[in-house]
Specification:
Four copies of one chain form a homotetramer. The first copy, chain A, has 100 residues and is an all-alpha fold. Chain A has three helices and no strands. Chain A starts with 14 loop residues before the first helix and ends with a helix. Chains A and D meet through helix 2 and helix 3 of A and helix 2 and helix 3 of D.
Chain lengths: 100, 100, 100, 100
């Protein structure tokens, strides 16, 4: 990784795209607060664990949609301009981390 | 699953235990807010994906520590009182969801 | 981990139990050979990747069923004889590896 | 998925590439046989579970290397010829299955 780092995406997200991702993250933030409350109220451990799994699934979903957009824009652009290999290796690296 | 649901853990968490879990969840909540900011500021997709992986890892860590406590208390208690199988099947079910 | 290692399960598997697990593993072995053939025949990468995912899922399924049996027998036995904590910590350790 | 299926990779694997993948798969096949033997010999469940995790990790490693090659060849080719979106959606789909 590392050599191919940008500060910004090649194609900036539209306001609408941003808002959708942020809304999903706000919902996830709310779910994390929900778990704090469950712990405070001494709720049954298995119910808390089920909630944590749900948050993980929601986060992965956001991740996959960002990954798809990233591949369609940044990686594709890199491939067209001959910088494909670095972009692809960086992508595979992040996929590996994701699938842990 | 389902038949063995409790509303509360057999051994209530101490205030100190609760506080530790809540502190970890507050940190995770902050990380989720951090990602929202990254999206707003149009930060590089791969950096955002790396952050999402980090949150997933942190959530799993909390999950595993709750799972250990649950097994040491609730499941152990169930085993000693002859209700072990239901508690274990419920545990395995939640582990499966977790490892997705 | 480590301190609580046995050479054999507390309750030996019946011949029937063994045979079922072995049959599932033989099928998985066949699937792995199938992928080798796909690679030799230059089959489409995505089809090969789908097959690898299927094998991973099948292996996890075998793993979860062994895990359930292990918890119902070895771990339960350990809990009843007061050695529960070591057995549970060992179990959680292996669950962590599994969910990677 | 589905609409973008090829029977063969755009760039055929070299004999050397094929042999490397096949060797790794043969080793995995041997590991699966090893687990069968462990079950037959009534070995300790946790040791078997550790072995299953190791096979899963090895399979994922093969998968990621195929995925990298696929993206560098087939997906890149598709992007250059304007069929990128279908190829990328197919790729993301298989990544999702992989990270389960």
């Amino acid at each position: 990784m590392g050599e191919y780092l940008h500060d910004h995406p090649v194609t900036p997200r539209t306001e609408d795209e941003k808002q959708k991702v942020i809304n999903r993250l706000k919902r996830i933030e709310g779910q994390v607060r929900g778990i704090q409350k469950m712990v405070e109220e001494d709720r049954y451990c298995v119910d808390i664990l089920v909630q944590i799994s749900a948050i993980n699934a929601a986060l992965k979903k956001v991740g996959f949609s960002l990954m798809e957009r990233h591949t369609k824009h940044c990686v594709s652009e890199a491939i067209k301009t001959g910088e494909g290999n670095e972009a692809i290796e960086e992508l595979i690296e992040v996929i590996k981390q994701f699938s842990k």
